[in-house]
Amino acid sequence: xxxxxxxxxxxxxxxxxxxxxxxxxxxxxxxxxxxxxxxxxxxxxxxxxxxxxxxxxxxxxxxxxxxxxxxxxxxxxxxxxxxxxxxxxxxxxxxxxxxxxxxxxxxxxxxxxxxxxxxxxxxxxxxxxxxxxxxxxxxxxxxxxxxxxxxxxxxxxxxxxxxxxxxxxxxxxxxxxxxxxxxxxxxxxxxxxxxxxxxxxxxxxxxxxxxxxxxxxxxxxxxxxxxxxxxxxxxxxxxxxxxxxxxxxxxxxxxxxxxxxxxxxxxxxxxxxxxxxxxxxxxxxxxxxxxxxxxxxxxxxxxxxxxxxxxxxxxxxxxxxxxxxxxxxxxxxxxxxxxxxxxxxxxxxxxxxxxxxxxxxxxxxxxxxxxxxxxxxxxxxxxxxxxxxxxxxxxxxxxxxxxxxxxxxxxxxxxxxxxxxxxxxxxxxxxxxxxxxxxxxxxxxxxxxxxxxxxxxxxxxxxxxxxxxxxxxxxxxxxxxxxxxxxxxxxxxxxxxxxxxxxxxxxxxxxxxxxxxxxxxxxxxxxxxxxxxxxxxxxxxxxxxxxxxxxxxxxxxxxxxxxxxxxxxxxxxxxxxxxxxxxxxxxxxxxxxxxxxxxxxxxxxxxxxxxxxxxxxxxxxxxxxxxxxxxxxxxxxxxxxxxxxxxxxxxxxxxxxxxxxxxxxxxxxxxxxxxxxxxxxxxxxxxxxxxx
Length: 692
Description:
By secondary structure, this protein is α+β, with helices and mostly antiparallel strands. Helices cover 32% and strands 27% of the residues. Strands 13, 14, 15, 18, 21, 22, 29, 32 and 33 form a nine-stranded mixed beta sheet that branches. Strands 3-2-1-4-11-12 form a six-stranded mixed beta sheet. A four-stranded parallel beta sheet has the order 6-5-9-10, sandwiched between helices.
């Protein structure tokens, strides 16, 4: 099976080719084309195949991680959206909930008020009302009012419409009928319903999720269509699969119907790639640390399992999102992050980035702002002739010029300013990792840090030092680990259904009926993807909480029919999980079943374990010795540093730092107080010594 994984980042588009029969692997990087990422994707695929003499018509699968949806939300560049909802509930999207994003700040940034996905003038209301607990009709849907609302939205230039009614998660009839009417009046528009996107309670979150789907829907649809068409024009018969936020991949049709599936597409692939690397090296407690040109993405892997977010803490750009997602924390910290002074004179780095165009000054494309990449160049950690394996020469003088300008403003030397840029960036990233570990009761000292992305290995060791993490894993191809992660996953879909049942009065017949119905729906979905029922693996969970709580924990349900004995074991599992998460439990309190979730996956071809490196000798790997600036024992000074070609390093030989290890897709920095060696898997293991 021949596969290509393509991950589009803010600066570079990364590609990996894998032949599962021969074990052959090839990698490639091209610059991202921000105006139309599909152009960079296709150029990368063509160049990768041409350079490795691979016939385009021989590729079986193209797996793709896309940032199209994420960037549309982050940049506020989505479709002109409209909404149709119940009379009296026009402003749910504006009001939100009683919680403020930052409880004690007097300068609140409330995204759904400051940057609304759907402007108030495009939110229409119509008579019609369903009521709990059965979803019975209290007020019939006024179909004429829906038709008038649709005509008004069409006249206002609306491109996408979200149909959002109260209690549609119990009974979707009103939403479905309204959708049909809108499609009659607005043919060609993107129309979705909240019950289709996320059939769960919590109307603000459900409505916002539907609004997000509309906001990105036309853009995702257009992008996938262009990509699919371009693949066909190249004569490729490969099946396209798109990475979803839940850690699986979906078909293009599924992505077009539910574009919100891709809101963390590329980020999910990175965490999966890091988990796969750890598995190859016998490590199952990992912090994945993926730094690209614009952002740093952090994921946690415990016992080989990637953490997922809970329903109340899932968001994108501050907007709540009621969809299954891997727990990935992203901050604006990358190679292109700009160093600047705020109005109070404080020295800051990021979150603004120079991006792919013009990029850092070092890229020679007209960049005039000092960036992290420029700081690394000035400190000697990036050399002009080593970048991208020598395919792209850095403009060292331009980096020195912009860092010197920054140093003058700060009253520092160029080296002090450059080292300050890296220290601030590393501290920001270390704090982000603490928020996902220490603040949740997880000790990072028992983990390995997987440093990946184009810039991860440049910073991994110093960030690990700040967190007392003892070792850093650098994958064989760190810059394309996200693309590799695309080749390690399966076709995967989720369904959720709200329950609201309480222990002591549990209706197991209803629970089993709902679980069975969800499994049947998923089986039908896979049938449309030409996947038979014998190929599907099901996993079922329940979102549980103590009665009266406002947050839930996901607890696995046993296979088959849920019996009285089985449900008792589920209650005990919840008590244990609650104590582990919050430090206490309430054994005598009733437990509420809030949602049921059914996940179905089907195996896809996988990236095989990479061939063990042949290895070489230190003498063959050594390129030169250069002066590199490090801070050791509080003293900033230049240190003689060996530069090695990674491909020529011997296996399992411990090499002392300081060192720079170069390869096409990344550069690894080993500080003076650390050692490193190449593992039999091909990964680089940096072992941190005691700080000087």
